[in-house]
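Q: Could you fold this chain for me?
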Amino acid sequence: MKHQRMVILGAGTGGTLAANRLRKRFSTAELEIDVVDQDNQHIYQPGLLFVPFGLADPDDIVRKRDRQLHKGINYHESEIASVDVEADEVHLANGTTLTYDLLLIATGTKLLPAETEGLEGPGWNKDAFTFYTLPGATALAERLEHFDKGRLVINFFDLPIKCPVAPLEFAFLADWYFTERGVRDDITITYVTPLDGAFTKPAASATLAHLLEEKHIDIVTEFNTGEVDYDANKLISYDGQEVEFDLAVVIPLHGGADYVHNSAGLGDELGYIPCDNKTLQSTVKPNIFVLGDAADVPTSKAGSVTHFEGEVLVDNIDAFLHGHEMVERFDGHANCFIETGYSKALLIDFNYETEPLPGHFPGPVGLPLLKESRINHLGKLMFQSFYWHALLPGRDMPGIGTHMPTSGKHELQPTGPT
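A: Sure. Below is the predicted structure, expressed as structure tokens.
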């Protein structure tokens, strides 16, 4: 194989694990790898959920991006100005131009609070917060510490968002947190969602709705937030519905990275990159691939998806560089630990075609699915070590492959009259 130059945009979960897997597979003589990101702070994003409740120290979930990359990978700290798709060039904000034979886009998704009227007004980070950023999670921790009574409202504005179960997890952890502090009876917790149920998948939605009811967490469905009014402390939907709050925890609208909109022909109207859902090769140009939250694949924007995509992606980049046919192997596999409080969690596992099912993962003897357990909670806590020491370095996890496993799962029984 002749010498090729590859540029990877983004040094988060996807960009880092892909760069490291590729570095192990190809020598520097075969493949030169340049990785670009706007800063040198790699945040373990699942840890942000725990920061507001004092269950994680911000310093423990942040490491240097360049320190996570294997030797022989070039790191550039700069914002990205644009991509010239036709010229195969990446233009950085610092004036550098990187030419490439192959481009991997892994710049994820970003919060767009300015897109919601009033959200960034006088009550932002005072009466309304988001835990989806480190500064937001840290500020919220201080606010929660002194919140003893009133109306707590948790609301995500629309899909797609990073980790769609995280808002539910926040509601469950808040119930636990306030109970431990002895103030739960003085606080109402309301979960506000644009969906018609607790979650997108019916079986998981039913289980999660039951947990909300059990924990006395109210739910307001089909609420599409269009405005935040801090004078009256209300969320106002596009159709005029209102939800009052004393403290709002919100997940703003998401979109692709800014440079995508500055790059002709690269992304869709939301800033995501169109790609083949099974190969992860972009439909923009054959030498552009996509990984993680930046892709427009119809599955959750979650770290597990990026992990499972990564194995398929590296094989397909290998095939592309050698002129071989790529494999259509990514099936939309995703799984999520869902913290439910009181040192318990449940686990869901699904893909493009199959909704979460009960049973065990990854086989008949494994973690329980769609069921609260302490072992699932421990699994979520242990994942942080696996993330830094196995997933990012590009190591395989024995027994867990790309495809969603079917062994150990039980088909749902039909309900109602036949």
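A (continued): The longest strand covers residues 334-341.
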